[in-house]
Write a structure and sequence with these properties.
Shape: globular
Number of helices: 12
Radius of gyration: 21 Å
Oligomer: single chain
Number of domains: 2
Number of strands: 23
Length: 469
């Protein structure tokens, strides 16, 4: 029997911008301090080694200045952020029926239970700082797959977590990585045993509801040799007119001959500074695939990274960014190659409208040991008016003469001739622009599972509303 599909055409801006009751938000106050970190760690009953990481990270965060490059972060008042907010008394429910009604209604508006029934092997749902629901189908549990809230994994699987945690993204990587490790809460732990191929995607959805809120989930994915998994991440937040902050962390470890695909549709509100860090380490003949859509947030700095340490390993990065009015989408990819005979590709598509700024910022680093590396980077930008901006900023460092590096970039606007052609066929200008945008993004969208391609298309439709005039 064919499973039901998920109808995202009914998803509306009001579903995304809706905010629930805020009575719980003030419990922990605003601002970051050692006292707050110790309180949260104690409430979570964390082992000493986790608290040590938090305190070292806090010191690193306080020591480091804001980045001096990229989008302007001077309006982000870090003392005005609610770094921890917990709305649900009961965490990690295994049935949607047990999730509090107001929180459950929020996720139902966003199609999460519907998506789980239709196509997913498992789902996690986080609301502000803590996970409210997490479940994995018995079919995969019986094969040794672990899919848990990250806080739960620290308690249940401490040896595995300790082996990998902070080894992909160091505490001192940058200021917001340090902030993340100081105050991380919730997230996902996904472990796929050797040789297990998970044939259905797993998803986590992160909803930020708190005014002036911060969300700092940690995702740790371990794919053992010969295993295969696809993980999908969705994100959203309501609009309050005051700053909020997302600084999550994603660490992926891909074993020999293993494959991991990480897809994300990040649709934060325009209030949000999205300063996320994602990185993968790939061993011999392993493959890492990043697929990302970035929309909504006022400021984004996000550059998924792949470190190819094993011979014959591969990384593929596919990304789309949409910068609307008063939005600065600074996105890209980082590739470091250490092993021999490695391959990597980047395909980046950006759209800008209403004076939005879209930037591809990329880094390619070929080490001396990386014989016969081949890297292809393709950046295409489409500007929908005369006020919008698109930039490409590549950085390439090559220490091995046998490497082949190809970088192509193009930027353009929709020509009047093309719109005239559509008009001659009876198609109005707004519909024509939508069709052109869909064609421009097809290479990215078609790589997502059908239901999530539908979600991304719907979100782009919402961004395109009013594109004429």
């Amino acid at each position: 029997m064919t499973p039901p599909t998920v109808d995202f055409t009914t998803l509306d801006r009001s579903d995304l911008d809706h905010a629930d009751d805020q009575s719980y938000v003030g419990k922990y106050g605003k601002g970051l301090s050692e006292a707050l970190i110790r309180q949260i760690s104690a409430e979570k009953n964390e082992p000493d080694w986790v608290l040590d990481i938090r305190l070292k990270a806090l010191a690193e965060f306080n020591r480091r200045p804001l980045p001096a490059w990229g989008p302007d972060l001077s309006d982000l008042d870090l003392d005005d952020i609610v770094y921890f907010a917990s709305a649900a008394e009961e965490k990690n429910q295994k049935s949607w029926d047990d999730v509090p009604d107001d929180i459950k209604r929020t996720f139902e508006r966003l199609k999460i239970p519907e998506a789980e029934r239709a196509v997913l092997a498992g789902v996690g749902a986080q609301y502000d700082s803590e996970t409210v629901y997490h479940n994995l189908k018995d079919e995969w549990t019986s094969q040794g797959v672990i899919f848990e809230d990250f806080d739960v994994a620290i308690q249940k699987y401490p040896e595995i977590v300790k082996k990998y945690f902070t080894n992909c993204i160091p505490i001192n990587d940058h200021k917001f990585a340090a902030l993340h490790y100081a105050i991380f809460s919730g997230g996902t732990f996904l472990y796929v045993p050797e040789g297990v191929k998970v044939t259905q995607p797993l998803q986590a959805y992160f909803r930020m509801n708190a005014k002036n809120g911060g969300q700092f989930e940690h995702t740790l994915i371990v794919v053992e040799p010969g295993a295969d998994v696809e993980y999908i991440e969705g994100c959203s937040a309501p609009k309050f007119g005051e700053n909020s902050l997302h600084a999550g962390g994603v660490e992926v470890f891909v074993g020999e001959n293993a494959r991991a695909r990480y897809s994300s549709v990040e649709n934060w509100s325009q209030d949000t500074y999205n300063l996320n860090t994602k990185r993968a380490i790939v061993k011999q003949s392993g493959r890492m695939e990043w697929i990302g859509g970035n929309l909504g947030s006022g400021t984004t700095m996000l550059y998924p990274a792949s470190i190819l340490v094993g011979d014959n390993s591969r990384a593929d990065h596919l990304g789309v960014a949409f910068a609307n009015k008063d939005q600065n989408q600074d996105t890209g990819a980082k590739i470091t190659i250490v092993g021999k005979d490695c391959r990597a590709s980047v395909v980046s598509k950006s759209l800008s409208k209403g004076g939005g700024i879209s930037t591809y910022r990329g880094s390619v680093d070929i080490k001396e040991t990386a014989d016969n590396a081949i890297i292809t980077v393709e950046c295409d930008a489409l500007m929908l008016d005369d006020q919008s901006v698109s930039d490409t900023i590549p950085h390439i460092n090559c220490a091995n003469d046998s490497a082949q590096i190809n970088h192509e970039a193009s930027a353009g606007k929709i020509s009047d001739e093309v719109l005239l052609y559509f008009e001659s066929r009876g198609i109005d200008e707004e519909t024509a622009k939508g069709m052109i945008v869909n064609g421009f993004l097809d290479e990215i969208v078609k790589t997502l599972p059908l239901e999530y391609a539908g979600e991304l298309n719907r979100l782009i439709e919402l961004e395109m509303e009013g594109s004429v005039g």
